[in-house]
Amino acid sequence: MRKLRYRSGIGIGFALLSPAVFAAMPEEVLTTISVVFTYMFIAFVIVIIVAVYFMRSRDKRRAPLKRIFEEREAIHSVGPDTLVTVCVRLMTAEKIGALVVMDGERLMGIFTERDALNKVLGRGLDPGSTKVSEVMTKDPYCIASTTTVSEAMELITKRRFRHLPIVENGKVLAVLSSGDLTHWLVKDQLGEVQELVDLAARS
User: Which of 18, 85, 115, 173 could lock onto 166 through a cystine, CB 3.0 to 4.6 A?
Assistant: First the structure.
C-alpha cells in the first residue's frame, strides 16, 4: 500500500512538472513561478558568494607573513643621524607611513607618521635640526616571518600598531602595515566575488 502511494506521489509530481501542465497554467501563475525561481537562484548565488568569501578569508588568515612580503619592494630605511625633514620627504616621495632606522644591519627603531606628529610637531621641535634617533620609536616590537596573518592582525589590533617589522636572525626582512594585511586578504576575493555577481547578472 505504501509503495502504491509512493509511486502515485511520484507520478503526480512528474505530471505537475510536465510541459502540458505548464502550457495549461494561466500566464499569471507562470509569471509568479518564474519570479520565485529567479529569487531562489539569486539567493543561492548570494549564499555561494558569502561561503566563498569566508572560506577564502579563513584560509588566507592562516597563511604565514612570508607569503605577503615575498612580492614586496625593498625596505625603506635611514641612518640614526638623518634629519626628520629628510625622513618626511622620503616617506612622502615613496608614499609610505614608516621608515626603519638602521645602524648598519642592526634595527634601532622605527619612525612613523605618528612620531612625526606627536614627538616632533607636538613638542614644537624643529624638524630641520632634529635627528630621527631622538624621536623614533626605539626597539620596536618585531615578529617572525612564520607568524600568521591572523596573529599579526590580532597583534596590530591589541597593541594599536600600524607597522610591524619582520625580523629573522637579527635581519629585517620587511615592514608590513595594517593596510598591507587588509589589502592582501581581500585582493583576490574581490575578483572572485565580482565574477559570481556577473554570472548571476547574466543568468
Answer: 173
